Amino acid sequence: MKKVIVIGSGIAGLAVSIRLALKGYNVQVFEQNSYPGGKLSSFSIKDYRFDAGPSLFTMPHLVTELFKLAGEDVKNYFEFSKKEIACNYFWQDGTSFKAYGERKKFLKEVEEIFNEPQYNVDQYLKKAKKKYDLTSSLFLEQSLHKLKTFISLDTLKALFQLKTFELQKSLHQANTQSFSSPHLIQLFDRYATYNGSDPYQTSGIMTLIQHLESAYGTFVPKKGMVSITESLFGLAKRLGVKFSFETGVKEIKVKLGVVSGIKTKSDSFSSDYVISNMDVFHTYKKLLPNEIPPINRLKQERSSSAVIFYWGIKQSFPDLDLHNIFFSKNYKKEFQAIFKDKTVSEDPTIYINVTSKEVVGDE
User: Fold this and answer.
1) Average pLDDT, integer, range 252-278
2) Which among 23, 171, 249, 310 has most CB atoms closer than 10 A?
3) 250 and 327 housed in the same domain
């Protein structure tokens, strides 16, 4: 039985360990923390529990798929429900908007609040779906490191539809040409931040991100986001995956151009394959010190980050939902501060995640 070492027990590390175990590999995961999940974990301060890391759950089928592959019923280990309202949006002039997950309700609300014709928004969403359908198999379901990905029929279809992707426009330009309401433009510009981009610089192809919410909806795990980690960790263990916690990897061993295992602070482990679930930059710079790194990849501009506060408040807020956005007055100035001036905006957009609205035990 061939052995695979996985570095890091983040969600991707857990998922790949499950898939490999199902393929018959001997899998061992090394994690420097004392718990699994990486960013997707939780912690408590006195009476308050907090989910750390991501707070928005979309595409739950990617989680349930792992249980189906293992022949298990996901309902026995992981429960989630669909949100009626994806997010509440607020502007400084007093405007507020509930983004319903159901298409008809969403379009009706857009017309009532922003005076934007339903037809315009519906066409925008259909175009976003087309972009997603043309590219998802390339960027989400196949490896970008294999030549066959780029000479496939799906790639040819996408190439013949290049105009659809609006690559020559920024996301903001694409939204400005689609809508007349400044508030609605700002709302759809926000989707650039899903991967830490600037809507005034990133390509118009990024309208496809909104499709994930409009087509699949947003969901909430019954026991919080951390239950995704807990359920996958349990599944991996049942499949025989071994975990070594508080064991940071110091180096990936390479002999004659072939990976042969890893080194920790106190030991060395051999394997047939090594998969790193760590940051790409850290993997090449720290774990592969003697290998020639892919310079062009490591020179890519970093995405934006966020300043996060965890507050436990003994008060309820009926106007808020699970996900809430309070927009800045000048969106362009905000992104100039982040990407050009490299500082925190004086008037930042604020996202508030209130888990007590949905998660059992967080009330």
Assistant:
1) 96
2) 171
3) no
Query: Residue 207 in contact with residue 171, Cβ under 8 Å?
Result: yes
pTM (2 d.p.): 0.91
Residues 334 and 185 in one domain: yes
Residues with Cβ < 8 Å from 260, sequence gap 6 or more?
253, 254, 270, 271
Residue 164 sits in the same domain as residue 47: no
| 192 in a structural domain | yes
Question: Where among 298, 323, 342 does a domain terminate?
Answer: 298
**pLDDT interval class at 153 (50, 70, 90):** low
d(CA 44, CA 50): 6
Tokens of 137: 């198999």
Q: What is the 3-state secondary structure (H, E, C) of the chain?
A: CCEEEEECCEHHHHHHHHHHHHCCCEEEEECCCCCCECCCEEEEECCEEEEECCCCECCCHHHHHHHHHCCCCHHHCCCEEECCEEEEEECCCCCEEEEECCHHHHHHHHHHHHCCCHHHHHHHHHHHHHHHHHHHHHHCCCCCCCHHHHCCHHHHHHHCCHHHHCCCCEHHHHHHHHCCCHHHHHHHHHHHHHHCCCCCCCEHHHHHHHHHHHHHCCEEECCCCHHHHHHHHHHHHHCCCEEECCCCEEEEEEECCEEEEEEECCCEEECCEEEECCCHHHHHHHHCCCCCCCHHHHCCCCCCCCCCCCCCCCCCCCCCCCEEEECCCCHHHHHHHHHHCCCCCCCCCEEEECHHHCCCCCC
User: Do 217 and 229 reside in the same domain of the chain?
Assistant: no
Q: Are residues 349 and 272 in the same domain?
A: no
Cβ 229 vs Cβ 57: under 8 Å? no
Q: Is the pLDDT of residue 214 over 90?
A: no
Q: Give 167's pLDDT tier (boundaries 50, 70, 90).
A: confident
- How many independent structural domains does the chain possess? 2
One domain for residues 311 and 197: yes
The reply to whether 135 and 177 lie within a common domain is yes
